[in-house]
């Protein structure tokens, strides 16, 4: 068994930056592909493809996915929460910009910090951490208000869906922490989430009357391939591998690069408007969540350090 490291080396930093850069690009790809492929059909193709890739990977590596280990109820719950998150992302992208959606999506650590102490008593919040939560909450409220300015109810709808997606991402993390799912292999944990969403998304797509057309442009095929292979398969497995090998708090800080990359790529590629208010909200949310996740100093016995 490989020992955990207490610092981020060059490999870890390179992989983290690569993941965050692609996750920022991924929102832009989804947005650009929407005119050709409806949102839930697009999500279905991605999720079904990633599930198949993961299953083949586990067959090749000899990683068991279907053994009875008592994880099925919690795994299905995590999969359901993950499914709602993805559906909100793809539907919300119809109404708001890729950059705005990413800012609201990455409020997920806020929900983790609020909800985890109900199940993990050792992670109760203290004064400075509550202040950090207040900062993040005020920033989100301000950004939502900006979306409503000038009667932009459609933008606000997308913002709210992104915020709900962030909440369900956070709930997924809480379920994993509060149950035995954290003891599973990264592959099996990811399989629960991908497989459930791959079953639900196509049914919901057809139920909502989306038209499934199978003639795609070269760009749409490339976009789907990147979303499936790099986004839902390689990057997620890489992220889980990093969480199992390096300090979780130091790894988690890097997620704040994703909204920055999304803002940059959205402005350069989609010509999206990046307002000072949105930048201020992003910075304040990041500050608040860093305050929440900062560990309190422990005084040493017999003197100060």
UniProtKB/TrEMBL annotation:
This protein's UniProt keywords: Cell membrane, Membrane, Transmembrane, Transmembrane helix
Compartment annotation: Cell membrane
Chief place of localization: membrane
Residue ranges of the TM segments: 43-60, 72-92, 98-118, 130-148, 160-178, 190-208, 214-239, 251-270, 276-292
InterPro entries assigned to the protein according to its UniProt record, in alphabetical order: AA-Vitamin_Transporters (IPR050638), EamA_dom (IPR000620), EmrE-like (IPR037185)
Record's keyword annotation contains Amino-acid biosynthesis: no
Membrane topology: Multi-pass membrane protein
Pfam families reported in the protein's UniProt record: EamA
Domain of life: Bacteria
Residue stretches making up the EamA domain: 11-144, 157-293
Protein name, entry field: DMT family transporter
């Amino acid at each position: 068994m490989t020992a955990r490291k207490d610092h981020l080396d060059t490999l870890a930093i390179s992989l983290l930056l690569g993941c965050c850069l692609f996750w920022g690009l991924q929102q832009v790809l989804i947005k650009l592909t929407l005119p050709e492929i409806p949102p839930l059909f697009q999500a279905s193709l991605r999720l079904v493809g990633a599930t198949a890739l993961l299953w083949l990977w586990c067959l090749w590596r000899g990683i068991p996915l279907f053994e009875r280990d008592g994880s099925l109820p919690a795994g299905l719950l995590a999969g359901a929460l993950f499914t709602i998150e993805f559906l909100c992302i793809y539907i919300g992208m119809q109404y708001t910009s890729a950059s705005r959606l990413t800012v609201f999506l990455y409020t997920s650590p806020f929900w983790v910090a609020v909800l985890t102490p109900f199940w993990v008593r050792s992670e109760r919040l203290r004064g400075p951490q509550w202040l950090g939560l207040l900062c993040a909450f005020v920033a989100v409220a301000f950004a939502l208000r900006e979306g409503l300015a000038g009667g932009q109810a459609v933008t606000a709808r997308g913002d709210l869906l992104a915020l709900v997606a962030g909440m369900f991402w956070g709930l997924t993390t809480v379920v994993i922490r509060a149950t035995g799912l954290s003891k599973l292999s990264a592959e099996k944990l990811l399989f629960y989430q991908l497989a459930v969403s791959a079953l639900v998304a196509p049914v919901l797509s057809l139920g909502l009357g989306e038209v499934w057309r199978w003639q795609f442009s070269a760009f749409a095929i490339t976009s789907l391939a990147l979303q499936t292979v790099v986004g839902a398969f390689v990057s997620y497995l890489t992220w889980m591998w990093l969480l199992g090998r390096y300090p979780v708090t130091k790894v988690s800080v890097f997620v704040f690069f994703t909204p920055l990359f999304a803002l940059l790529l959205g402005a350069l590629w989609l010509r999206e408007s990046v307002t000072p208010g949105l930048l201020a909200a992003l910075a304040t949310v990041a500050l608040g969540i860093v305050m929440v996740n900062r560990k309190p100093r422990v005084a040493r016995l017999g003197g100060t350090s």
